[in-house]
Amino acid sequence: MGDVMIRPATGSDIPYLYEICLKTGDAGKDATDKYHDSYLVGQMFAAPYLFYPDAIALVAEEDSVPRGYILSAPDTGAFYRWMEEVWLPPLRRRYGVPAALAACKSDIERGTLGGVFWVRREEDLPGWLASYPAHLHIDLLPEIQGRGTGRALLQAIFDELRARKVPGLHLGVNGANTGAIAFYKKQGLQVLENTPWGFNMGIRF
């Protein structure tokens, strides 16, 4: 077991991000057997942040291999506009056929596929977003969990968002991921909203 190093993500990290996203895609557990298209979850929740111009993307690597990441957009409304204009149109063409839905192996994959076609409109954004405009995704493989890596990644993002004068941050967490919920509360996040799938949590800077 080597030391875990945190560094900015680069384009060469993309294959690892897809793998990490899939292996943590079932409420923090391995979702490999839940997806017919093993890249779909990464297409939605990991890869965009290496292309979005204002994103903050860090990886945690051990023995020169990325084993975790944290990805953030400082302005969720602007990020949603970019998703609608740039990222989602080719995905919608790729997955917008009956065979794509028929091939889904689980409700998790069907839900992710639904997210491809969910239209992100600013008028639908919650009122609390003005106070918590940034959002993030953080995923760690089991081998680097429990070693302070998640806390270090969060603090690095918090520091960068403070430097950019962002007033607050939110994230979504599956209600079944009780370990993550407890972790976020320890880091100062509070529940902003209950949802059918879990919670939106946030922190002000």
Features:
alpha+beta, 205 residues, 7 helices, single chain
Molecular structure report:
The chain has 205 residues and is α+β, with helices and mostly antiparallel strands. 37% of the residues lie in helices and 23% in strands. The protein has seven helices and seven strands, in the order βααββαααβαβαββ. The protein has a seven-stranded mixed beta sheet with strand order 1-2-3-4-5-7-6, with helices on both faces. Strand 6 (190-194) and strand 7 (198-204) form a beta hairpin. The longest helix has 20 residues, at 76-95. It starts with a strand and ends with a strand. The model has no long low-confidence stretch (mean pLDDT 94).
Largest sheet: 7 strands, mixed
Strand share of the residues? 15-25%
Helix/strand order, N-terminal first: EHHEEHHHEHEHEE
Helix fraction bin: 25-40%
The total count of helices amounts to 7
How many individual β-strands? 7
Name the overall outline.
globular
Radius of gyration: 16 Å
Structural class: alpha+beta
* Average pLDDT taken over every residue: 94
Distance between the termini: 34 Å
Report the uncertain regions: none
Biggest sheet: strand arrangement: 1-2-3-4-5-7-6
Write the layout of secondary structure elements.
Blueprint: E1 4-8, H1 14-23, H2 40-45, E2 56-62, E3 65-73, H3 76-95, H4 98-102, H5 107-117, E4 134-140, H6 149-163, E5 168-174, H7 178-186, E6 190-194, E7 198-204
Provide a short characterization of the protein structure.
The chain is α+β, with helices and mostly antiparallel strands and 205 residues long.
